[in-house]
C-alpha cells in the first residue's frame, strides 16, 4: 500500500490505518489518494465485505497536514478539496459495503469529518472531535457542512462549526453523530466484534441499505418507496436471502456469503 496507509486483511475485513503518528495522522495528498484508491479497490473486490479505518499512535486524525506544500495561505485550497477531499467522501459514500471508523484520541478538522462520513463510528470514551476549521479561518469541508446538520441538527452543527469547540465522544454519541462510545480499554474488542458481525452479514443487503439511506436525504417518500421496491426485488434473488430464510426455518444461525 504505502508508508502513510497500512492495510491489513483479516478474512473479509480490510483494516486501513492512517499512519503518520508523528503528525497525529494529518492528511497529506499521498495519504488521501492512497486511502481513496484502497476504498475503490475494496469496492470492487468481492472478498472484502467490511472496511475499518483507524489511526496509528495517539490520535485518529488531525485533519489536513497544515505543513504540506500547496495548503499555505494564498494557495488554491478549492483545488485541494476538489482533487483529494471530495473524491474521498464520494468513495466512502459510494462503496456498497459497511465502513467503520475506530476513533481514539483526537479527530480534528477533516479528520473528524472523515469519521462522520463513515457508516458507523465507534469512539473511545476519551476521544474528542473538533471542527477546527473556523479556528484557522476555513469552513468545514470533507462533507462537514452536508453531514453535520443531518447527523446532529442545525443548531449543534452551527455551534460546533462556528465556535470550533471540541466535543467529547459522549456528546457525539448523545447528539447522534456516532454509533457507540466505549471505555478506552474496550475499543479494540468492540471494533473487532462489530467488524466481524458486519463481515458475516448479507453484504449485498447492507450495500442496498447504505445506498437507500443515502438517497433518502434528497428524495420524497414516493421515490424512496421505489428505491425500496427495486432493492427488495434484487435482494429477493440473492443466495443470502435464500440462506436467511432457510436458516430461519431450520432454527439455526445463517451463514451468509455475501452473494
Ligand atoms: O484545501 C485544503 O487543504 C484545506 C483543507 C482543510 C481541511 C482541514 O482539516 S483544516 C483543519 C486542519 N487541522 C487543524 O487545524 C488541527 C491542527 N491541530 C491541532 O489543533 C492540534 O494538534 C490537535 C488539537 C489536533 C492536537 O493537539 P495536541 O496538543 O494533542 O497535539 P500537538 O502537540 O498540537 O500535535 C502533535 C504534533 O502533530 C505536533 O508536531 P510537533 O510539534 O510535535 O513536531 C503538531 O504540529 C503536529 N500536528 C497536529 N496537527 C497537525 C500537525 N501537523 C500538521 N498538520 C496538522 N493538522
Structure overview:
This protein has 259 residues and is of the alpha/beta class. The protein folds into 2 domains: 5-199, 2-enoyl-CoA Hydratase, Chain A, domain 1; 203-249. The protein has 10 helices and 9 strands. The chain has helices spanning 29-44, 77-94, 110-116, 144-152, 154-163, 169-174, 187-199, 203-216, 221-235, 239-249; strands at residues 5-10, 13-18, 50-55, 99-103, 106-108, 120-124, 128-130, 167-168, 180-182. A 6-stranded mixed sheet has the order 1-2-3-4-6-9, with helices on both faces. Helix 1 runs parallel beside helix 2 (77-94), helix 4 (144-152) packs across helix 5 (154-163) and helix 8 (203-216) packs antiparallel against helix 9 (221-235). The chain starts with a strand and ends in a 10-residue tail after the last helix. The chain binds ligand T3D. Ligand T3D is lined by residues 23-24, 26, 62-67, 71, 77, 80-81, 106, 108-110, 132-133, 136, 138, 141.
Amino acid at each position: 500500500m504505502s508508508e502513510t496507509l497500512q492495510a491489513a486483511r483479516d478474512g473479509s475485513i480490510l483494516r486501513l490505518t492512517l499512519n503518520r503518528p508523528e503528525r497525529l495522522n494529518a492528511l497529506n495528498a499521498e495519504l488521501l489518494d492512497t486511502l481513496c484508491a484502497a476504498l475503490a479497490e475494496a469496492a470492487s473486490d468481492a472478498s472484502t465485505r467490511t472496511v475499518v479505518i483507524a489511526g496509528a499512535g495517539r490520535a485518529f486524525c488531525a485533519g489536513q497536514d497544515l505543513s504540506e506544500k500547496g495548503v499555505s495561505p494564498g494557495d488554491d485550497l478549492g483545488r485541494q478539496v476538489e482533487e483529494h477531499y471530495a473524491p474521498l467522501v464520494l468513495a466512502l459514500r459510494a462503496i456498497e459495503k459497511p465502513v467503520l471508523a475506530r476513533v481514539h484520541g483526537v479527530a480534528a478538522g477533516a479528520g473528524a469529518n472523515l469519521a462522520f462520513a463513515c457508516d458507523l463510528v465507534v469512539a473511545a470514551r476519551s476521544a474528542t472531535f473538533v471542527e477546527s476549521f473556523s479556528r484557522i479561518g476555513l469552513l468545514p469541508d470533507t462533507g462537514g457542512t452536508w453531514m453535520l446538520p443531518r447527523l446532529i441538527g442545525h443548531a449543534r452543527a452551527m455551534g460546533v462549526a462556528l465556535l470550533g469547540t471540541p466535543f467529547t465522544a459522549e456528546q457525539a454519541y448523545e447528539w447522534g453523530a456516532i454509533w457507540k462510545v466505549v471505555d478506552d480499554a474496550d475499543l479494540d474488542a468492540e471494533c473487532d466484534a462489530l467488524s466481524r458481525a458486519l463481515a458475516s452479514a448479507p453484504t449485498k443487503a447492507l450495500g442496498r441499505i447504505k445506498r437507500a439511506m443515502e438517497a433518502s436525504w434528497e428524495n420524497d417518500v414516493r421515490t424512496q418507496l421505489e428505491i425500496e421496491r427495486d432493492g427488495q426485488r434484487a435482494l429477493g434473488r440473492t443466495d443470502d436471502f435464500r440462506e436467511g430464510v432457510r436458516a430461519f426455518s431450520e432454527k439455526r444461525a445463517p451463514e451468509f456469503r455475501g452473494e
